[in-house]
Design a protein that fits this description.
It is a single chain. It is built from 15 helices and 7 strands. The protein is an alpha/beta fold. Among the domains are: about 45-245, P-loop containing nucleotide triphosphate hydrolases (Rossmann fold), CATH 3.40.50; about 250-295. Strands 4-3-5-2-6-1-7 form a 7-stranded mixed β-sheet, with helices on both faces. Strand 3 and strand 4 form a beta hairpin. Pfam families: Dynamin_N (PF00350), GED (PF02212). It comes from Sus scrofa. One of its GO terms (molecular function) is GTPase activity.
């Protein structure tokens, strides 16, 4: 038996295996590392999941959440339960902490993972019309506290207005969370007497939505059964699960079929489809309103005649009912008549009644017509004279405060929903 002195060796790692298969070509080995399963998964995530998260964040920044429920992860817990510690561990930044109510406004924490390890940390705090760019993680706590004071005041009250904190770093996960005030049961110091009700109302506003995943933070040193936050979450979600419905736009089926592989072309086509659709909807609405106006003008007299005809038919139906009742007792068959002849008689009776009324009211109608016409002309002249006095425009056009507030609210809602619709139309996929 002959033994060889050269023993075959198994490669001790995937890296070594790749190196052997690629005949020692270091450049190809490096490329194989970059296209490994982890990078493949990340590229799929960046292509399909990341745009969805960015879209939801942009819709929330527009304030669409006031009108529509958006997918979210709500962080809730009792006061001093450790919510801030959990969020700090995820984000790597210090958030306002202390005793009592520290989180006084809902805080939207947007974490974005940067691809390159060399990329610098970036942050941004947004609230109302303010945007503060941050270059250092140590600035976060101060700016968030300042935002809370600007919105909720110097005291210990709470507000429903959102504060947005965006953190971009290579060391954070891609995640968006909403930090809500901690639940307190007893008002302390200068806190409002109904502080518990205010906080619970704010929390329920978020956790009752089916699109919200509730993240309940429970301290390890308390009995989990006595946790108020967990009890509230169980009330709105007794099954312990959440369902999110996805809606696809039917108008983009053709674009998706033909341009699915060309995402920029598909996105442009969707944008064009949406613009044309909006324009056609306006034209259709105008046309429908015009037809209603024409119908009202042409058939307005029919309403009078139809009312008279209805009364005649009801009267004859009552007489027919009484006749059948009498025939039942007398046991004599009723003479049969053609229904069409009966209907003609009904129309003749109704027409005769309306003509008689019209003749009797002819003179009063003429007088009323001329009075209204003269009055209308005089009113028109008076209103035109008002337009000559430009100094009174502001006073004449002053409206009730509640009407102005309502118009402003509806305009803002319309603007939010229009912008959201356009962003959804341009969203790939």
């Amino acid at each position: 038996m002959v033994y060889s002195s050269c023993e075959s060796k198994e490669p001790d790692s995937v890296s070594a295996s790749n190196h052997l298969l690629l005949n020692g070509n270091d450049e190809l080995v490096e490329k194989s590392h970059k296209t490994g399963p982890e990078n493949n998964l990340y590229s799929q995530y960046e292509e399909k999941v990341r745009p969805c998260i960015d879209l939801i964040d942009s819709l929330r920044a527009l304030g669409v959440e006031q009108d529509l429920a958006l997918p979210a992860i709500a962080v809730i817990g009792d006061q001093s339960s450790g919510k801030s510690s959990v969020l700090e561990a995820l984000s790597g930044v210090a958030l306002p902490r202390g005793s009592g109510i520290v989180t006084r406004c809902p805080l939207v924490l947007k974490l974005k993972k940067l691809v390159n390890e060399e990329d610098e940390w970036k942050g941004k705090v947004s609230y109302r019309d303010s945007e503060i760019e941050l270059s250092d993680a140590s600035q976060v706590e101060k700016e968030v506290s300042a935002a809370q004071i600007a919105i909720a005041g110097e005291g210990v009250g709470i507000s429903h207005e959102l504060i947005s904190l965006e953190v971009s770093s290579p060391h954070v996960p891609d995640l968006t969370l909403i930090d809500l005030p901690g639940i307190t049961r007893v008002a302390v110091g200068n806190q409002p007497y109904d502080i518990e009700y205010q906080i619970k109302s704010l929390i329920k506003k978020y956790i009752c939505k089916q699109e919200t995943i509730n993240l309940v933070v429970v301290p390890c040193n308390v009995d989990i059964a006595t946790t108020e936050a967990l009890r509230m979450a169980q009330e709105v979600d007794p099954e312990g699960d959440r369902t999110i419905d996805l809606v696809r736009l039917a108008f983009t089926d053709v674009s998706e079929t033909n341009f699915n592989e060309f995402f920029n072309l598909h996105r442009t086509a969707k944008s064009k489809i949406e613009d044309i659709k909006l324009e056609q909807e306006k034209e259709a609405e105008t046309s429908i309103r015009l037809h209603f106006q024409m119908e009202q003008i042409v058939y307005c007299q029919d309403q009078v005649y139809r009312g008279a005809l209805q009364k005649v038919r009801e009267k004859e139906a009552e007489e027919e009912k009484n006749r059948k009742s009498n025939q039942y007792f007398l046991s004599s068959p009723a003479p049969s008549s053609d229904p069409s002849i009966a209907e003609i008689f009904q129309h003749l009776i109704a027409y005769h009644q309306e003509v008689g009324k019209r003749i009797s009211s002819h003179i009063p109608l003429i007088i009323q017509f001329f009075i209204l016409r003269t009055f209308g002309q005089q009113l028109q002249k008076s209103m035109l004279q008002l337009l000559q006095n430009k100094d009174q425009y502001d006073w004449l056009l002053r409206e009730r405060s509640d009407t102005s507030d309502k118009r402003k609210f509806l305009k803002e809602r319309l603007m939010r929903l229009t912008q959201a619709r356009r962003r959804l139309a341009k969203f790939p996929g």
